[in-house]
Each structure stands twice: as C-alpha cells, then as structure tokens.
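User: My collaborator sent over this chain with a note saying "see what the structure looks like." That's all I know about it. Can you take a look?
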Amino acid sequence: MADKLSVYNEALRHVRQRALASLTEEGKARRALDREYNNSVDDVLSKGLWNFAFKKVEISADTDLDPNFGLDYAFTKPDDYVRLASISDSPELESGLLRYDDDKDNWYADVDTIYVKYVSNDTAYGYSINDWPRPFAKAVAADLAEKVALEITGDVSIRNSAVVIARDELHEARRLDAVDERVKFAPAGTWTTRRFGARRRSKRDRM
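Assistant: Without extra context I'll predict from the sequence alone. Here is the result:
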C-alpha cells in the first residue's frame, strides 16, 4: 500500500537527495514535490488503462446539447474522466459501440443511453493512493523525480537519469497492469447512473 511520504521519498532517492521525515518538513525539495504531485499523478493516469482506476457509468443523453457528427444523441463526459477503456450500448460491455464519435467534452451516438468504462481521477478511484498497486506508485514517484530534478539539484545529468527511470517505471507498471487484466470487457456489476444537471465532484479535491 502506497502513501504520499513514501512516494516523495522514492522520488528524492531517484534525484540523490535525502528522505523527508514528514510531509510538513520545510525546504525546497518538499515544496517542489507538493507543487508537482498532482501533475505527476494526472500524467501517469493518462498514460495507461489502469485496472485499479476503472470506473463504470451509465450515461443518459443530454437534451441540452446539440448532437454532432450526424449522430442523434450527445453525452457529456464525466468530470473525473481521464481515458476511455470501452464504450457500449450494453450494460455488460460485451460488445463495443461501433458507431460513435467524440470531442474534448462530449460523446455522440445513435442510442440514448451509453455504458462507459474509463480511467477515473476521482479521489475514490485513480487518486485513491491507498489502492495504488506498487508499480503504479513507483511510476508516479519516477515521474515526480523527473519533474523536480533540475529545480532541486541543478544537475542536468541527474535530470537525464530521472527521465530514463521515469520511462522504464511507466513501461513496467503498464506491463504488470496488463498481466493482471483477466478479461477484455468488465463483467456486469454496479453501475453509476449519471443524470445531467447534477453537481459533479470536484477533480481537485486531492489528498
């Protein structure tokens, strides 16, 4: 089980700095880590189809949106949406939706209800650090090290080394996550039905 202090200290190890005693310890290193932490989590979440961060939702068409791309219905993407795993007109997600399109904020389809499985950055999903597999936590720490290396050390060679470590840890985390996946589509289970107009959870209510 990961925790924020261990992620920070692994990042510091990659840039050859001493470990922090606590998350309240003063100093340039901790301030840099605090500033870049959310960016690193967001970046690593966006680069994989992470099983621990998958969320399934049922979404009804938004009647306030004009359909696009010649399709009949429009759907607003959830606020915690990061990356699509599958989209279907079936709750079992047993077959993908063949005719749909999307833009930055919306999906479009010929059915009035869609079922979506996606990587979520909600605090109960992708941002739930207690649920992070060890390889994912290592990938976040390595990405964090790459982001803060120059600021903390001023050493280009250390930063270049951190870039390589970040690439390798991300590759390994994705490989192991793929090994853990047992089925292509999620089995039937609990669905979150999203109705439009309701207030959504803030994406920035982070730990």
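A starting point for your reply to your collaborator: Residues 79 and 203 are 7 Å apart (CA to CA).
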